[in-house]
Amino acid sequence: MKKVITLVLVAMMILLSACKAAPAETTEATVAPAETTEATVEPAETTEATVESTEKPIIAVCLPALDNPLMLAIQDTFVNGFGADYDVQVSSADGNANTQATQVENYTAMRVKLMVVMAVEATSLVPKLIAAREAGVLVMVIGGDPGNPDAYDSVMMMNQYLSGYYEAYMAKQWVDQTYPDAADGSIETVIFESTINPEATNRSNGIKMITEPLMKNANGEFTDADGNVVDEANAAPNPAYSSKVIVVQTVQAEMFQAGQTAMQNVLTTNPNVRLVLAYAGDGGMGASQAILDEYAKGAGISVITDLNQVAVFGVGMIGAEGPAVLDSATNTTVFRGTIRFGGDLVARTNEIVAQILNGEITKVIYDPLDIVTVIDGKLMSVAIEDTEVFRVPTAAPVEVFLGPPPG
Fold it and tell me: Which of 85, 234, 238, 281 is the most buried (most CB within 10 A)?
């Protein structure tokens, strides 16, 4: 009996020992989850690395305004063309040079990848652009030469003065065709100009060459046929000059509504105006609409009795200008011609920016120019061979097809 009791006691002691040991092993085993928890910190580090890798380099686009079709088209082409790979930030200076200078400074501080600038006033912006380049920012200037090659990596520009000059040439051709026997100073004409910046002033001065008998450059200096500055006695005859034209008003008007309102006022004070030379195609189309509205008043009331004897010309073919010129063939508009610059300017800008981002940088890129009018009911363009000196175009007309390409 004692042996049995002894065996029972021994067995109980062994069990108690086992029970005490088990919790210690279990406690030790539960350390493992703690180690595992510590290891789970790594995903947080991975997440942080992922956030950094998804940050896109910035393309900054500094525009003088966002109140016309060209500016809006430029904005859209950057966002749609580069938004997948870059953070595209578009700023409007609202026509204020100081505002734009501050925008350029801010983008420089952000160390953007590429800054694309269309200047409100280029001269005052030059130091800011030089500082941006010194900070490692790629700078592309569009619309005009800021006057200092250190201010840009690449400049894409048109000759604004020549664009206006060729508009004057278009108008002169129309006057000669429509009014072959008109007396000198008999075709009352209004000019819609812009002096918002030097580039705009240059284009406006080019338009005014319709009243200058001798060739001049953008600075108003007499030139020979090759653009060399000469005295008045040696200046070349101006091919865009029309002795039949007399300018009765010069008005500040760029966009559609401004052009429409300005033309309504012109027809009140100068009802015999038959020719309008507009700074921009958009303002020209506004003038055209005002003329159509006047004509719609009917015989005996309207000061416009024959739409065939009225014409508006402009510069630019970004959106509705092409269809408007084509519609002038049936007098649905009287917007009879425009100067197209850069061909498809927006697409070319997109292409050149892509090259710059790929490291293919061209310092100076000139926009081609051509004259777009209606010939025998078709929209036709005539290429301008020289973008630095005015020369009478000799290229054969080529049909312009509107809308997207087939397919």
Answer: 281
The sign of the dihedral angle between the CA atoms of 322, 328, 333, 336 is: positive
pLDDT in tens, 117-143: 999 988 889 999 999 999 999 999 987
Assigned fold of 160-341+368-399: Rossmann fold (3.40.50)
Residues in the chain: 407
pLDDT digits (tens, 9 = 90+) for 244-281: 999 999 999 989 999 999 999 999 999 999 999 999 99
CATH number belonging to domain 55-157 = 3.40.50.2300
Matching fold, domains 55-157 and 160-341+368-399: yes
CB–CB of 161/209 below 8 Å? Answer: no
pTM for the structure as a whole: 0.70
* Structural tokens at position 116: 């694309």
Residue ranges covered by each domain of the chain: 55-157, 160-341+368-399
